[in-house]
Write a structure and sequence with these properties.
- There is one protein chain.
- The protein has 438 residues and is of the alpha/beta class.
- It folds into 2 domains: 197 residues, 3-Layer(aba) Sandwich (Rossmann fold); 140 residues, 3-Layer(aba) Sandwich (Rossmann fold), CATH 3.40.50.
- The chain is built from 18 helices and 14 strands.
- The strands form 3 sheets. A 6-stranded parallel sheet has the order 3-2-1-4-5-6, with helices on both faces. It has a 6-stranded parallel sheet with strand order 11-10-9-12-13-14. Strands 7-8 form a two-stranded parallel sheet.
- The radius of gyration is 24 Å and the shape is elongated.
- It starts with a strand and ends in a 9-residue tail after the last strand.
Length: 438
């Protein structure tokens, strides 16, 4: 089989590479000539563990190609995947579908025979139908069927999520399209992955419902963490106690500075707007959005309080700036709220991140960027852990203590045990757990 993947961002590149690994002939298309040139040279535009080696292997095998020529790539393809960005639209929070619709018009011009047109991008309910209308209007003679096939990839573990997913959701009313999608995902049938076939619109809503539920779960445990601090309880024990209930589950019950990234912030907001326009507002999700936005802004106050109520003239060492480990993605990262707030309060910020500093430098001004974890901490008044990269999980505490002006650690990811840090001579502040002091 042969497919064209339009868009070489996170979703398009990972999905294209993984389909190629399944034995499918894939061409990944992008208008950005510089990006395509770098991909042809083996340079990945994103950091995703294992992606560079996977791409190198399947390009060498001849199953994966990169191109800027959409018309040539779409011609003769069995399936055309739309995997372009759908960022939040400025002003109203709706998903910006301009890229999706522009690609639809180009696809219409490029079709040479029957093809399945698949929306892989996260899109609001009704988008697939509109894409079909655009193509039909431009090419009344075109032979195609529309499919919604949302992605459920976690940054940092995307390849495994594609190869061994919890489920695959496919929305279409066409038996012919179903057969093509079954063939594309045949390797997953062999390992008995649940394949959910449903209506086009239902598939689109399923993606938003999944991300919104997970965002709600994160926000719930964050609010429980705040309550724990007031009552002297330990949020990690609470999370374990409720997570062992099979109806709840353990995942996404880690208290922290709030969710960020490329999906949850924009998808919760887009679903809120869709529900409001449909006359069926989602009050829970509206609250989740409000609480999460406020939480990220509140985190700087915790650091300032740890410094005795004032950050003026103090130096803060920030460990980790990406929204999560194992990615260089800075989109809606809590650090984008925390660091400017600390600077506004008069602090000098030194920072280190294993992969995210190139992107972070474009978004954060006035930060002293360091080459190593320990260089970052030199002469600082407090260490703040924002992202739980593995290399921050086993710090040499004696060395840290010598580097700091004051032995204070504010751990926004609950990486360390409070009693261990207290015994090592630190004032340790975490999330939803009793603070510990030497």
């Amino acid at each position: 089989m042969r497919i064209a993947m339009i868009g070489t961002g996170y979703v398009g590149l990972v999905s294209g590479a993984c389909f190629s690994e399944f034995g499918v002939d894939v061409v990944c298309v992008d208008k950005d000539e510089g990006k395509i040139a770098r991909l042809l040279d083996g340079v990945m535009p994103i950091f995703e563990p294992g992606l560079d080696k996977l791409v190198e292997t399947i390009v060498r095998a001849g199953r994966l190609r990169f191109s800027t020529n959409l018309k040539e790539s779409v011609a003769g393809a069995d399936a055309v995947f739309i995997a372009v960005g759908t960022p939040s639209r400025r002003g109203d929070g709706h998903a910006d579908l301009s890229f999706v619709y522009a690609v639809a018009r180009e696809i219409a011009d490029a079709l040479t025979g029957y093809a399945v047109i698949v929306t892989k991008s996260t899109v609001p309910v009704g988008t697939g139908k509109e894409v079909g209308r655009i193509i039909r209007e431009a090419r009344p003679d075109a032979q195609f069927d529309m499919v919604s096939n949302p992605e459920f990839l976690r940054e940092g573990s995307a390849i495994n999520d594609f190869m061994r997913p919890d489920r695959v959701v496919i929305g279409t009313a066409s038996d012919r399209a179903k057969e093509i999608m079954r063939n594309l995902y045949r390797p997953l049938y062999l390992i008995e992955t649940p394949i959910v076939f449903t209506a086009l619109e239902t598939s689109e809503l399923t993606k938003y419902a999944a991300n919104t539920f997970l965002a709600t779960k994160i926000t719930f445990i964050n609010e429980i963490a705040d309550l724990c601090e007031q009552l002297g309880c330990d949020v990690q024990d609470v999370a374990k106690g409720i997570g062992l209930d099979g109806r709840i589950g353990r995942k996404f019950l880690h208290a922290g500075p709030g969710y960020g990234g490329s999906c949850f912030p924009k998808d919760t907001l887009a679903l809120v707007r869709t529900a409001q326009e449909a006359g069926s507002p989602l009050k829970i999700v509206e609250t989740v959005v409000e609480v999460n936005d406020a939480r990220k802004k509140q985190m700087a106050k915790r650091v300032i309080q740890a410094l005795g109520g004032s950050a003026k003239g103090k130096t803060v060492a920030v460990l980790g700036v990406t929204f999560k480990p194992n990615t260089d993605d800075m989109r809606d990262s809590p650090s984008l709220d925390i660091i400017p707030a600390l600077q506004e309060a008069g602090a000098t910020v030194r920072a280190f991140d294993p992969e995210g500093m190139t992107e972070a430098k474009k978004l954060l001004d006035g930060v002293i960027w360091c080459d190593t974890t320990y260089e970052c901490m030199g002469g600082a008044d407090v260490v703040v852990i924002i992202t739980e990269w593995n290399e921050f999980r086993a710090l040499d505490l004696d060395r840290v203590k010598k580097l700091l002006r004051q032995p204070i650690i504010v751990d926004l990811r609950n990486v360390y045990d409070p009693q261990t840090l207290a015994a090592a001579g630190f004032t340790y502040i975490s999330i939803g757990r009793p603070s510990a002091a030497a």
